[in-house]
Fold these 4 entries.
Entry 1:
Amino acid sequence: MEQLFMNTPFIIIIFIFLLSLFILSKSTDYLTDSAILISKSLGISDIIIGATVVSLGTSLPEFATTISALISGSNDLALGNSLGSIITNTSLILSLGILYGSIPVSKKSASNVVITFLGLIGLYLASLFNNSLIPRVLGYTLLIALPLYLLQSFNNNNSTETIEQNKSLKEKLSFDKLLMLFIKVIISGLIVALSSSFLVATVQVSASRVGISEAIISATVVALGTSLPELSTVISSAKKGYGGLAFGNLVGASLMNLLFVLGTAITFSKTPITVPKSFLIFHFPIAMVIFLYLLFSIYNPKKHVLTKKDGAFLIIIYILYISYNLLTK
């Protein structure tokens, strides 16, 4: 795929990059919406759908990009996209949502923050003491933890009351409508795969021409692009007083990026993933600082809620993150 753009004018490459990013986001939305309708027709509760289908759907752009990067042998791009999305979600996107209203933090969301924080520490220490290589066994561990996490989500919300309530809310669809939804899921999935391939190819060509590493581009520009669709949702939820739900979705998406996306990247990469020096020095530490601050804010007995002060701190963190990446190649 990369060979297609070797002699293409740079302005055309930028246009294809932006178009691929847009199509990737939109096709992911269509796929997720169709999957939600199918789930509802099968009688699955909204809470469980949110914990599984929606969580997986929000990480689908990063997953598709990561798979495309692995196929093309670009491990740096796969790592940068996953870690960059985690940082972007929990700093920029979250901070902008907080500016529209305080965000309460539920017990489940708090536990997900803890799990993600511990996972980041594990990845950092493993690569730090293994010559910058992430052991493949760590990828197996993350992928094993994924179904355990999803199963816990089911068990926590699959109460008798929820089941009975859901039976009355079950949306029965005709066979024709269900068939069309399945077809839409398949077509959307194919478009996701194709657009992510174009996205990865344009990043690779751009990185070689500009002289910036693929890891840096994917951790900033690509990560921001794949996270923007969640921005409107977070702001809208915060305005309507559902900030806690928005926070839960963002943390859930970050956890999916860790378990699902990074777990897949580490496990199925052709060669062990080498963590760039800049990631060991800055990217991983700043991600851990963000989650450490969130934990402090959440478990402070007088707070247990994220306020505008926390939002201001997180936006400063994101500005520092972007500034560092602009100054280093």
Entry 2:
Amino acid sequence: MNMKDFLRSLELFKKLSDDELQHIETYLAQKTFSPGQHLFRENQPREAVFLIYDGKVELYKSTPMGEEKR
């Protein structure tokens, strides 16, 4: 699946025109992450939006008691 078709498959981008999707594509960078590698950490400034093209992501949140909840 090419990137434009991938974007169109997402509810957020579903109704955009081809020109709008092409404009968004110019800002995308494809990255590969290793298993266990963190994409971001809780309470850290966000510098990017991640669209998961292939694979899975697990999210964890720290409780007030310091435990990690999945």
Entry 3:
Amino acid sequence: MIRAMSSPPHRSRAPFTPVRLALIAVALLLIGLSWWGVLAGGRGLESRRLSGANGEPLLFLVPAGATGVPAVIIAHGFSGSTPFMLGFGQPLARAGYGVMLLDFDGHGSARARLDDGSLQRNLDAAYAALLAQPEIDPARVTLLGHSMGSGAVMSASIADTDRYRATVAVSPTGADVSADAPRNLLLMAGTLEPQFAANGRDLLARAGGSNDDLAGGRGRAMVDVPNVEHITILFSQTAHQAALDWLNRTFDLPAATAAPDRRVVWYVAHLAGWLMLLTALAPLIPVAATTTPRRRPWFWLGLPLGAVAAVLLLALLGRVGDVSRLGGLLVGGALALWFGALGVVWLLLGFRPPWPTGRDMLWGLLLFVALTLAFGVMADRVWLPWWLTPERLLRWLPVAAAALPWLLAAGLAQQGASARRRAGWWLFQTVVIVAGLLLTVVVTPGMGFIALLMPLIPVILAAMSLAGAAVDRPWSYALGNALFFGWLLVAVFPLA
């Protein structure tokens, strides 16, 4: 039963205190230092944005004033992009290499769709653009790829053994390797990604086993990178150093130390700074008039029931056709539908939502802007091209609309909750969503990639919960977070 509202239409929160003012100062300092730290990674390097023969977005990095340097083309994995591979790109460029990074078709800033010939076509375009750079030595070109990109670079170097002097396969998939091709093959995988580590050991055996004959092009090695999985290996100092050592040995160059990549540390500090700032500025945000959230008895039960419904829906659709291409996004469209089903069930079973007001919509838009500043803008320099191409922008609002019921239910469930209760809701949602998505991977073909994203889900849910707590208006919470979550899905997943 819904109790009558007894509070005035819009209550102001507690005024600023010395503690809040100090929090604002610390937050602004943290944000500024984070930008200084991220931008420092590119100092001393020349950077050029280029376009390949087929319109591929390319980024070339080289030490300022370099001439006749060896070069490496770096290829990302599925749902990856150029920023994701800067962890390898910047240290190699600082060590004296010309580095060409690319976005495969369907990924990042690329506007073309991914098809069967995309990967090799894109690598050929990156190679042609690399040869046009005056700083590099065209006789000393190598390849490095992660996951999907590892298979692409191995296949490219097998197809043309004279073109590439060495190949580094990070979290390797598969290729027709042999004792002769590709030349100087280094495989590496994290100890927390056993499937890819097993792939690496199998490839090493099929390539003739470990071999130190790098001068003859028959070098072979496998590196187990400790305590990392499929995503964190890209930011591992051990992985960066192993790649640099292998390439330096290939070209008989002196040993060198890979420059540390601290972009993730600065990114986390930047996100924390913004969340601190939002918390400190919360007194400026009027609280919604409804003091008693419109919840039904056992409203929390709708969340796990919604997850079950979402799993069953995708499993049934998977028996009819390929759900991984829904909405023109590989995996991402199906993921949006999954959250849509979860949200509709939870909202219907658990709540009687109030009608939104104009002020709710305004604060929701401001919440989306705040999340973009906190999470998205710096992501563009660390792991994700944030600004959407026109093809992606068309998909943004439909995907956001699919997430809206789930986030409205979450906002109603947490309205007026203490920090401890919000932490409990974050944990409850994380457990239910992760379990539901893992079950979806098991029962629905084509959704396996979701399993690799599990480490990101608690972080994303925490950021949305903390930012939404500063507003504490269910419709504002829902609108701002849905716009943000929809943008994130559309930015991450490849165009089908």
Entry 4:
Amino acid sequence: ARIVKGTEVLKPNCALIDSEILRDQDKDAVLKFTQDWLNRHIQTVLEPLYRLQDQDIAEGAPKEVAQKIYEGLGILPREELQNLIGQMSEEGRNTLRTKKIRFGPIIVYLPELNKPAGVAMQALLLSLWEGKTLPAEKPAEGIVSFSIEGKDINPDYYRAIGYPVFGPRSIRVDMLDRVICAVYDGADKGKFKAQHQMAEWLGCNIADLYAVLEAMGHRKIYDPADEEKRDDVPEKPTDKADAKSEEVIELKEKEPEEKKQAKKPELATFILKSGKAKPAQEESASKKFKDQKFVWFCN
């Protein structure tokens, strides 16, 4: 049999391949067997997603949030759920936490679906649903992020399989969420500094890190590298008194390469994207923010 598009993204069908081996009376039994196997296989691989259909989730906002995340294949922008999240009681929030839903500042998702098998299954199901050619397009197994420069990709497709697109990169959602929380946890008075570990988490260079942060809505206001470029242009000595300065410059240039590489330059400062203030009812990744103009929470 082969897998074909069904009535829902998560419910593809099996179609028997013509074969002389099967007699007419066997076809129905074989089709039922393969369809049952396919249904069980999908539910096993995407088990965290199917938990959102459990009956213990309370009616109202919690049930609606769970259903929307289910229909989004385990990931949605938080802004699409914010009104419902605000309506939930603490009991409703706790129920959804037991389903391992991660309510990040920008994205709500199921971290357990980030495994290669989950990504591959989501890619297959979406490709079937959208009529794309198989095998399904997906990132290399285990990759943290990849450049989308020069590539014609569908951001909605990559977000649905756990690799949202921000700026020049498609980024695995758990690493993206780590950077987002580090940004908000490290912010002070509406500003934050980019950190080298953020680029390491994203598996990208500093230029791409800045582009990703700007794609999130943050604005770069100061970059020490700009000043260093100006300082790196030595003035031409005008007399003998300047000769000593020229020698100092030459000595700096001869500084051991290992020592140069060990020094990590200070990175740029950004103004934090302002968010809608709300009561401090949820814990952030490591603390609560007191500046209500820039309140975002990770829970």
